[in-house]
Amino acid sequence: MVNAVRFTVSLEQGLLEQFDDFLAEKGYASRSEAIRDLIRDQRVADRWGDDQQAMGTITLVYDHHVSDLSEKLTAIQHDCHELILSTMHLHLDHDNCLEVIAVHGPGRTVQSLADRLISIKGVKHGKLTVTSAGRELG
Ligand code: NI
Q1: I need a surface site. Which of 10, 20, 64, 88 has the fewest CB within 10 A?
Q2: Distance from the alpha carbon of residue 102 to the mean position of ligand 1, in angstroms
């Protein structure tokens, strides 16, 4: 690892045990890698808001039998076509669809698109996940 710096962290015993349980659950081989990922995740969460450029995915699960739902979701995506890079649609079962929409654009605008899609009646679950390939992640 380039320019790695070692430092000491002091934690209460109970908090350390929780951290080690977290490592085991997630499959981390070392505390260092888990701490690196937690810092990166927080940096992405802190930096993408407002006018910062954001990229990520909007995941939707919905019942395509709900009246006009598919048409509403498509109309909103056409309204915001400049934010959408690609859409993947999977027919999960007889009733349910999973849609994954890759997005990029100003953070506030991407969040607004996600909110519009997720809040429509009939969308059972939706989530915006923002990521980064930025140099700030090390
Ligand atoms: Ni479908």
Answers
A1: 10
A2: 17
The rounded distance, in Å, linking the Cα atoms of 128 and 113 is 9
Ligand 1 centroid – CA 91 distance (Å): 4
Q: Residues 55-79, buried b or exposed e (16+ Cβ, 10 A)?
A: bbbbbbebbbeeeebbebbeeebee
3-state secondary structure of 111: helix
C-alpha triplet 65, 70, 71: angle, nearest 5°: 125
This prediction has a pTM of 0.77
pLDDT tens digit string along 55-68?
999 999 999 999 89
Instruction: Count Cβ atoms below 10 Å from residue 82 Cβ, excluding itself.
Output: 8
